[in-house]
Amino acid sequence: MSPFPTLHTQRLCLRELVANDAPALFDIHSDADSMRWFGADAMTELAQAQALIETFGHWRTQPNPGTRWGIEWEGELIGSCGLFKWNQKWNSCALACELAPDARGQGLMSEAMQAMLDWGFEQMQLHRVEAWVHPQNTASLKLLERLGFKAEGTLRDAGFWNGQRHDLGVLGLLSHEWLNRKTTGI
């Protein structure tokens, strides 16, 4: 893949995650309440955040590459979002995101995801983006629906974290739906 694509919105900078971001990322990922929907156990050591940043960095070199952006607002890392598991033959990928509790409810993730999706549909020439979401994660479900994603079904017992199996809802967004949403303002 080409050099890391830094994206700018009205309030945000979506940029490459770097080693200095580990403490902020750890703060988000060590919060058990925040991680209850994320699909991973809460972190217990800073080294786990450092390893996650390295993992995200390696995504861009994988056969099915991905890009994970750090979301910076007012000079602080407040979360991340990314496109991953890129199937270039099918022009499809998945997305994931997380946001610090103090940054929620201000439209910041919606702003970040719009920039990320614009980039994905234009630069990666995606036809489809999908998200897997815990059925009780109403905030993420509402965000995805506002962005035009449509519910497609349930993956039974597809997730495993906090010692439990979890169903995951599948939502999808197609390129023509995204383009139509942008041109009609819906």
Please give a structural write-up.
By secondary structure, the chain is of the alpha+beta class. The chain has one domain (7-184): Gcn5-related N-acetyltransferase (GNAT) (Aminopeptidase, 3-Layer(aba) Sandwich), CATH 3.40.630.30. The protein has six helices and eight strands. The chain has helices at 22-29, 32-35, 46-59, 108-123, 138-146, 175-184; strands spanning 7-8, 12-16, 67-73, 76-87, 92-99, 128-133, 150-161, 164-174. An eight-stranded mixed β-sheet has the order 1-2-3-4-5-6-8-7, with helices on both faces. Strand 3 (67-73) and strand 4 (76-87) form a beta hairpin. Helix 1 packs across helix 3. The longest helix is centred in the middle third of the chain and has 16 residues, at 108-123.
Which CATH architecture would you pick? 3-Layer(aba) Sandwich
H/E element order: EEHHHEEEHEHEEH
What's the name of the CATH homologous superfamily?
Gcn5-related N-acetyltransferase (GNAT)
The number of distinct β-strands equals 8
Instruction: Flag low-confidence runs.
Output: none
Oligomer: single chain
- What general form does the structure show? globular
Tell me the strand percentage band: 25-35%
Task: Output the number of helix runs.
Answer: 6
The CATH topology turns out to be Aminopeptidase
- Global structural class: alpha+beta
Give the mean pLDDT: 93
Distance between the termini: 32 Å
How much is the radius of gyration in Å?
A: 16 Å
Give the strand order of the largest sheet, numbering strands 1, 2, ... along the chain. Answer: 1-2-3-4-5-6-8-7
User: Can you summarize the main beta sheet?
Assistant: 8 strands, mixed
Q: Can you tell me the number of structural domains?
A: 1
Percent of residues in helices comes to 25-40%
CATH class: Alpha Beta
